[in-house]
Amino acid sequence: MDAVAFLGPLSGLQEDENEPGPTEFEVDDGGRTRHFDLDRSRIADTHGQRGQLLVLREITERKAREEVLQTQRDDLEVLNTMMRHDIRNDLQLATAYADLLEDDVAEDNQAYLDQIQSAATEAIDITKSARDVTEVLLSAGGETNPVRLDTVLEAEVAEVSEAYDSGTIELREAVDPVQIEADDMLESVFRNLLTNAVEHNDTDRPEVEVATEIGADTVRISVADDGPGIPPEERESIFAKGETGLESDGTGLGLYLVQTLVDRYDGRVWIEDNEPRGAVFVVELPRVS
């Protein structure tokens, strides 16, 4: 570190006896910002000679941890807002329809029962995503390890297919048993993409096709649906935190989780057009060599 750059912030502090105590300052160390804490105390010897005791500590790592914790707190606050808003609305809707069915469920009231079931399913999905986001935020900087793609992807296709039997979710072909550098949260990436493809579909029977493309260094997983599609101008913002949570039919929480996890795995996620209609969500992740 340049001595002049380091000593510059200390200039005048030693002579200022009116404001003893801790002082924080930062120094530019060749493009890297380093943080320090200077604690000053007055001292005097038996002859009345006065001075100051200076204790200098580097607090760069502490500052970095504080920034991470603050980010996590902010993210949890957003999560809490989404949870309270969306779950409350779904449960209120379910309660309203349940009131209409207090006496019996006649055939012409079957639509009400279907609506209750749909609202309950969406509420469950929200709580799953909220749980996953919380785990991700609390484990920021966690370690990754090799995870088999076929095991995770095939399990999530089967689980979401069972939960949404009104649609069709299929693998285009068998998944190769390649490994991806990820963690236990990888399943959340696929679950949220599959759920999103079904829930935001405007057809009577949604059709979703999952495909994989194995490269030398990466693996691409595509989730194609036959829904309304996503306009190009919305494709980047749709993954952002809180972009759709309070103003649309969905929370946007699942896609925010997808982006967060893919970033953690040093991967990419983007959206393409499907033919003849719909959207294709593509995830590219580094494979273990």
TrEMBL record:
<keyword id="KW-0808">Transferase</keyword>
<protein>
    <submittedName>
        <fullName>Signal-transducing histidine kinase</fullName>
    </submittedName>
</protein>
<keyword id="KW-0902">Two-component regulatory system</keyword>
<feature type="domain" description="Histidine kinase">
    <location>
        <begin position="82"/>
        <end position="289"/>
    </location>
</feature>
<dbReference type="InterPro" id="IPR004358">
    <property type="entry name" value="Sig_transdc_His_kin-like_C"/>
</dbReference>
<dbReference type="GO" id="GO:0005524">
    <property type="term" value="F:ATP binding"/>
</dbReference>
<dbReference type="GO" id="GO:0016301">
    <property type="term" value="F:kinase activity"/>
</dbReference>
<dbReference type="InterPro" id="IPR036890">
    <property type="entry name" value="HATPase_C_sf"/>
</dbReference>
<keyword id="KW-0597">Phosphoprotein</keyword>
<dbReference type="GO" id="GO:0000160">
    <property type="term" value="P:phosphorelay signal transduction system"/>
</dbReference>
<dbReference type="InterPro" id="IPR003594">
    <property type="entry name" value="HATPase_dom"/>
</dbReference>
<dbReference type="Pfam" id="PF02518">
    <property type="entry name" value="HATPase_c"/>
</dbReference>
<keyword id="KW-0067">ATP-binding</keyword>
<keyword id="KW-0418">Kinase</keyword>
<dbReference type="InterPro" id="IPR005467">
    <property type="entry name" value="His_kinase_dom"/>
</dbReference>
<keyword id="KW-0547">Nucleotide-binding</keyword>
